[in-house]
Amino acid sequence: MTIGTGLPEDLNSFPKLVERNARRFGARPAYREKEFGIWQSWTWTEAREEIRAIARGFIDMGLQRGDHVAIVGRNRPSFYWAMLAIQYAGAVPVPVYQDSVADEIAYVLDHCGARFAVVEDQEQVDKLTEVRDRLPSMERLVYIDPRGLRKYDHERLISLADVSKIGTDKKAALEGELDARIAASLETDTCIILYTSGTTGRPKGVVMSNRNVLVTAKNSCEFDGLTEKEDVLAYLPMAWVGDYIFSMAQACWAGFCVNCPESAETMHADLKEIGPTYFFAPPRFFEGLLTSVMIRMEDASKIKQRLFHKYIDHAKQIGPALLDGKDVNSGDRMKYNIGKALVYGPLLNATGLSKVRVGYTAGEAIGPEIFEFYRSLGINLKQLYGQTEACIYITQQPDGEVSADTVGVASPDVEIKIADSGEVFYRSPGTFQEYYKNPESTAETKDAEGWVATGDAGFIEPDSGHLRIIDRAKDVGKLNSGAMFAPKYVENKLKFYPNILEAVVFGNARDRCTAFINIDLTAVGNWAERNNIGYASYQELAGNAQVYATIQEHVEEVNRSIAEDPLLSGCQIHRFLILHKELDADDGEITRTGKVRRRIIEEKYGVLIDALYDGSDEIYIETEVTYEDGRKGAIKATLEIRDAAVVASQAQQVAAE
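Given the sequence above, the corresponding structure tokens read:
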């Protein structure tokens, strides 16, 4: 029987999907994890048995339908099993970013009223112990890694292994109750609560139903033809909607295998060993990977450098056309195949992307040059546009219709409209239920007809029907000249350069645009070592005169590129400075997902912004910073401010003539 949404009744919840997968794909690998250098594997049948045991253990501990359980840790099969076991028991998982400080974790757990928390190790146990007095609902802490916890008070502590053992020992007594809870699950039940990254304030709890998540998983799997044969690498934060959709929802719907790296430090090595067929990464990943490639090429021999640049230039010309199945003459095709044997193939093998059949990037706009670089190598990299409140999918790019400038057409069952103000609105089966305990924000974001305000400005291209996002609606403004100001457009162009990690552009309601730059310590540090330039810190390297000269060249190249865009040519950067510290989530300057908190930066560094506009050549600043152990300190620096050459736009050139 189908219930209105296209979800069969026996597949309208995660527990029912796992049961289906154990029957249909029982012997196929469902989860892999690398531990102590060795890959361990679990089939769907084995995973189901472990999930059910944990669920019975939770029920024995008193977990009730509708209870909230926090999840704090890195990508591990044990955490995915715990989330599924929570849903088996009829409760609701609430993932939390593992690198959150104790105060951030306390806010989420108190806000959602979590009764239990499943955490990874001693570090997370210590964080929750520190804020225990602020969590009146918290009853039990379940940990995975026992190291360092032997002498802790175990009155409220229990290992996940012991929870599983309880469930195994009490199988006969609790199996009927577990089956009854599974059978009672409905598509309207709350599936998960995902907290936003909190770009402009406290994170909001986004309440998702089974219908929201599983209809989205069904539609997106069908859109890209995802099957049980896919392999994905689960390395993104478990608290982020992308990981939940890719590593939980789509994995359970299609039945494919989720591979968990040994650690963040081994992620790239593990990526090469797995060779995923379906891969998602935010723009920062692709930017960082390109940076590492360029660093390696700078250290290569002159012959290798010439070969690399020769064939990469050729790939940029015809690679995307080949990928889209367009006609390419035999000579160009032959040259591309030679480049594939000499350059592209070895490069893809070295990055672990050689088997990618479908690749996506999202989270923020990716620089067109970076996007086209990967597609030129034959990677079917596409963009999607979405947000937590949409179960990530608002638009997708169909094969053969991929563009660096747009984010595709509406995903299946998604409707899009553009308001008179230019803001993008959508509605879909994936649209969230509400913000938990926040009816005011819910009403501000989603209207009575289900239309959700994205907060982004954009338009539908009349010829292609594809959506083009300009910037965050609140960030799009105008210069005093009346020209459009879209900072993200400029920032993405700057971040194409391996030397630039982050950029923040200013200019709204001003005469001209200026920028803060963060250098990439890896890329610039490698350059410094090759040139025998000593430095003791990020701050010292950022203030180096040669580094400034290089960044100025990049800024001026971007200005020349922007000058060619008649709509945004006014966004050229007139002055810039290199910040004396990296923007940091612990200092509140960026979110845990790497998004710049513009308002906080404008308040915190107001003296620097003023100096960019008052003609100063340098400015002194003292900045409070937070160390890894939570202690506070201060960094003092005198920053140089430089002018950058700008280019007359085509319209200005015509007027001058």
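The radius of gyration is 26 Å. Try to locate this feature in the token string yourself.
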